[in-house]
Design a protein that fits this description.
292 residues; alpha+beta; four-stranded antiparallel beta sheet; 20% strand
Length: 292
């Protein structure tokens, strides 16, 4: 799933290519991707892109006239830029293509633009056309951005104090902190040397500081690694930068212990027992406790 660093890199990638360009056609291929119908997508045609903004994991593509095309890539969605789009419109089918945005061709050349695609059978990719980003329910409920200039250690600590919520779930809760998903929550907790099942309410002041620094450091490093990469390189770049997530059975790069995994119904978490849980393996998630 694309998370804050990858979505931020996509924002920069698109902002460079779309600013000042005019929408030629918007071609929905999978009707399920559309979450709004008024105004219709063809209202974008003939309008000029002004900026691309990120809200958590949402991309917000603004055009003149006060419209915004908002995209959430969800778990298996992605954006694919094409320097030369096929002349024929795409046909609905079983492929991954969900929506195509074609720009007006320049000086008689082929039209360029981007495709939104989604792999797998769980169709969660979402596209909205709205006047204000807050009209998208997912954006309206977002917590603060962890890398925003005004979000410091004290603001972070105030969010966590008294919460009887496990750190893994809290970091992924978009209404608490925006933009962190399964992969980077694992990476943050490993950097902070904390159990994913530890309760936020139990954190000491020094632990709150350590978690804040791990969060901003991990995300900041990932943003810097992703900056400037083409959209097609971001997935591989993300995997290369991960130290524990998706690496169960490998050696921890810090202590050399074996990285372990806890499986859920549709996801998993990875952690290092030596670095994070005092050497004890975590129990199945349903037990919500350390093995004795």
């Amino acid at each position: 799933m694309p998370e804050l660093p990858e979505v931020e890199a996509l924002r920069g990638f698109l902002d460079e290519r779309l600013a000042g360009r005019t929408v030629g056609r918007v071609l929905p291929v999978a009707v399920s991707v559309l979450k709004t119908y008024d105004p219709p997508l063809d209202a974008l045609e003939g309008r000029t892109f002004s900026e691309v903004v990120r809200h958590g994991k949402f991309l917000d593509l603004a055009v003149d006239g006060g419209l915004r095309l908002v995209v959430h890539l969800a778990r298996a969605g992605w954006l694919r830029w094409q320097d030369s789009l096929p002349a024929a419109p795409p046909r609905p089918g079983k492929g991954p293509l969900a929506l195509r945005v074609a720009l007006e061709a320049e000086q008689g050349g082929a039209a360029d633009g981007f495709d939104l695609t989604e792999a797998g059978t769980q169709k969660r990719l979402a596209v909205y056309l709205v006047g204000e980003p807050e009209q998208v329910p997912g954006i309206a409920r977002l917590g603060p951005d962890p890398l925003a200039p005004g979000f410091g250690r004290e603001e972070f600590a105030a969010l966590l104090r008294g919460r009887r919520q496990q750190l893994k779930g809290l970091l992924r809760d978009q209404s608490v902190i925006a933009g962190i998903g399964n992969a980077y929550s694992d990476e943050i907790l490993h950097a902070a040397r904390m159990s994913p099942f530890k309760l936020a309410a139990d954190l000491r002041e020094d632990e709150l500081t350590a978690l804040y620094e791990a969060m901003t450091g991990t995300l900041g490093d990932a943003v810097r690694r992703a900056r400037g990469l083409d959209a097609g390189q971001l997935k591989a770049g993300k995997r290369l930068g991960l130290r524990v997530h998706g690496r169960a059975g490998e050696r921890c790069p810090v202590c050399g212990d074996t990285i372990r995994s806890v499986s859920f119904r549709d996801s998993s978490l990875e952690y290092c027992p030596t670095c994070q849980t005092g050497g004890k393996p975590l129990a199945d998630r349903r037990l919500s406790r350390l093995l004795k």
